[in-house]
Amino acid sequence: MDFNLTEEHIMIRDAARDFAQTELLPGVIERDNKQEFPKEQIKKMGELGFLGMMVDPKYGGSGLDTISYVLAMEEISKIDASASVVMSVNNSLVCWGLEHYGNEEQKQKYLTKLASGESLGAFCLSEPEAGSDATSQKTTAIEKDDHYLLNGTKNWITNGRTADFYIVIAQTHIDKKHKGINAFIVEKGWKGFDVGPKEDKLGIRGSDTHSLQFNDVKVPKENRIGEDGFGFKFAMKSLAGGRIGIASQALGIASGAYELALKYSKERKAFGTEICNHQAIAFKLADMATQIEAARHLCMKAAWDKDQQNDYTMSGAMAKLYASQVAMDTTVEAVQIHGGNGFVKEYHVERLMRDAKITQIYEGTSEIQKIVISRGLIDK
Ligand code: CAA
C-alpha cells in the first residue's frame, strides 16, 4: 500500500489549485450573489482538459485516472462548487457513460466535443415525481418509424440551459417497468424541447439548474444509448461513478472551509492571544482535520477501486455519504470559528456552508447512499 501521490498526480493537483486561485476565486462571491454561471471559467477548464479528464485522448479527453479526477475536483471545489458541479456532471455522468456504452458514431459525434470542452453535457434523470424513486419515470419515449417521440418533464437539471447535449432517461415500454427504460442523446434546439426558468437556490447558485420540457421531440433511433431497455442500468452505472465526483466536491468544500478557518484562527486575537491558542478552537480544528482526512481516504479508495476495475458502487456511496456529512459539519464549524465575520459574505465560509448542503441531496440523497451500501452488504 502506497499513500504517496505520483509526480503526475501532484502536477495535476497543483494545476487545478493554481487555476482555482487565479481564475475562479476572483468574482466567486459576485457570481454567487447574481446567480451567474461561470461561463468564461468553464471554457478555460475545458481548454485545460478538466471537463473530460478520464476520456481516452482519441476522443478528445485527457486520458487520466480517477485519482487525478478526485484531486482536481477537491481543488476546484475548495474555491467554487458551482464550477465543480459542472465539471463533475460533464466528466462522470455524461462523458463516462458515452465512452463506455455509446457506439462509435455517438462517440465521434458527441463525446469528442464534450470531452474537449467544446460542448457541455447534462444528465436528465430526475422528474417532479421521480427523484430518489428513479424507476418511476413518467417521461416517455415511444418508438415510431425511424425515431422515438419524447414527452415529459425533467427537474433540477444541472447545466439545464448551458448544455449543448442532454442524456435523457425515459420510459419506452411502460409494462416492463425499469427494464423498459432507455437513455437518449438529445440536442439543444430540437423542436419541442424547452428549458424552464433558472432555479433560485440555497447554494451552488452560479450553477445553471433548470427544469426541461419535452413535447413530441423527435429523437432519431441512432441516438439511443445501448440495447433497448438498458437505460436504467445505464443511469445507475453512471451515477455510481458520479458519486465519486460529488464525494470529492464535498471533500473540497470541507477542506476549503477548514483552510480558511485555520488561517483566520491564527490571525484573529481574543483574550490576549490568537484564537487558535484557545482549546475551544484548537479542538474544533483537530476534529475538522481528522474528519477531512478520513473523507479524503474514502474518496481515494473509491477512485482506486474504479481505476483497478473493482466494483466501486459501495465505496463510491460510502465516500459520498461520509464526505457530504463532513462538508456540512466542517462548514458550520468554520462559520463558528469566524464568529461575526463568518456570517459575512466576504469571508467565503457562509457560501461554502450553503454549498455543502446539496452534496447530501444530489446524485442520490444520503438516505439513498445508505440503501446502496446496506444492499451491498446484505447481498455479499
Ligand atoms: N449498477 C448496475 N445496475 C444497477 C445498479 C448499479 N449500481 N443499481 C441498481 N441496478 C439495477 C438493479 O440490478 C436492477 O436491475 P435488475 O432488475 O435487472 O436486477 C435495477 O437496476 C433496479 O434496481 P432496484 O430494484 O434496486 O431499484 P429500486 O427501485 O429499489 O431503486 C435505487 C434503486 C438505488 C434507490 C435507485 O433508484 C437510485 O439510485 N435512486 C437515486 C437516484 C439518483 O441518484 N438521482 C440523482 C439524480 S442525477 C443528479 O443529481 C445529477 C446532477 O445534476 C448533479
If you had to describe this structure to a student in words, what would you say it looks like?
With 380 residues, the chain is α+β, with helices and mostly antiparallel strands. A four-stranded mixed beta sheet has the order 1-4-5-8. Strand 2 and strand 3 form a beta hairpin. It is globular. The site of acetoacetyl-coenzyme A (CAA) has 24 residues, from helix 5, helix 7 and helix 11.
Low-confidence spans: pLDDT under 50, at least 5 residues?
Answer: none
Task: Provide the succession of SSEs.
Answer: HHHHHHEEEEEEEEHEEHHHH
What general outline do the C-alpha atoms trace?
A: globular
List the ions, cofactors and other small molecules found in this model: acetoacetyl-coenzyme A
Helix/sheet category:
alpha+beta
Number of helices: 11
Strand order of the largest sheet: 1-4-5-8
Specify Rg, calculated over alpha carbons: 21 Å
Instruction: Report the helical percentage.
Output: 40-55%
| End-to-end gap | 25 Å
Mean pLDDT reading: 98
Q: Approximately what portion of the residues adopt beta-strand conformation?
A: 15-25%
Question: Could you describe the largest sheet, including whether it forms a barrel?
Answer: 4 strands, mixed
The counted number of beta strands is 10
Reconstruct the topology from this structure.
Blueprint: H1 7-24, H2 28-34, H3 39-47, H4 66-79, H5 81-101, H6 104-116, E1 121-124, E2 140-143, E3 147-158, E4 165-171, E5 181-187, E6 193-198, E7 209-220, E8 224-225, H7 231-267, E9 269-270, E10 273-274, H8 279-307, H9 313-338, H10 349-358, H11 366-379
Parallel strand pairs: 1-4
Antiparallel strand pairs: 2-3, 3-7, 4-5, 5-8, 6-7, 9-10
Helix pairs in contact: 1-4, 4-5, 4-7, 4-8, 5-6, 5-7, 7-8, 7-9, 7-10, 8-9, 9-10, 9-11
Bound molecules: acetoacetyl-coenzyme A (CAA).
Residues 85, 89, 93, 123, 125-126, 132, 134-135, 158, 178, 232-233, 236-237, 239-240, 313, 362-364, 368, 371-372 line the site of acetoacetyl-coenzyme A (CAA).
